[in-house]
Predict the 3D structure of the following.
Amino acid sequence: MAEVNVDRIKAQVAAARAARPRQPPLLPGIGRWTPTPLKPNPEAAQAHARRLAQAAKVRRGLVQGATAGTGRADRALPLVPPADIVQPAFIWATPAGILVQDNLAPDDNWAQVEFKGGADKQGWCVVGFFYIWTNPTQDALGLSVDTLLGLIGFCSVFAKRSFTGGYAYLGGTAGLDVYEADVLSVAQAEVVQMDVYSFPLWFRPQSKSAIVDALIDLSYDQLVVPGGGTIVVEAWASFYYHTFHDGEVVVDFAGDFSRVANPNMTFTPKPIIMNLIGWRGAGPVDAP
């Protein structure tokens, strides 16, 4: 891969995000107290890793089959073979300080993140895997992108016992963003959503928690890249939080068996067929 100016791309991404900030989800109703489960254990983490590896293997076979098909001599139009990019250009987590550890290696790309939001706060924490694809031809090409995002970790919301009561909301989402002149969100899937409320002068704190163990399929097939053009695609996991008074949220994907993983991303180019009926050469056909 050609050398990538990560700082320049981050500056462009930051400018695009500022111009079009993420929209928070609608807050649900009042939650109820539930017991707190244990965090992910080694067996759950190993099972998650096996499912992620198997899914990536199936996708790899599909890409290999599609690549072999582009070389057929009986095709009317030449095709650019799919690109299975096995390592993103970089991983970026925001805000600063939530990233505990990350790894970039072929088919083994992951990040460990953790965050705690206190009383009367709202905001986002996001971890993204950024891939770059350049159109190798001089013609505009249609493009589809496809990837898997694996999440295994732990989320909690708390409303503490207090004079004023408290409320806490947490919503987790996975998605694909495309960066060109602007940022375009092309795919999203809900990962987790929870909230909890404690009444003023309530004698018992309220809480909810959940182990997150999910494989999210993210794809989009309606992109167009001009000849020689470059496109940046981010596969991301984000967590929006909102607390009132004595509310608190915890996002923990940084334990011994927790992480957000993105093995690879597939870019599949396809020719754009233009309607040439009624045209000859550089000008329109004369009407009869």
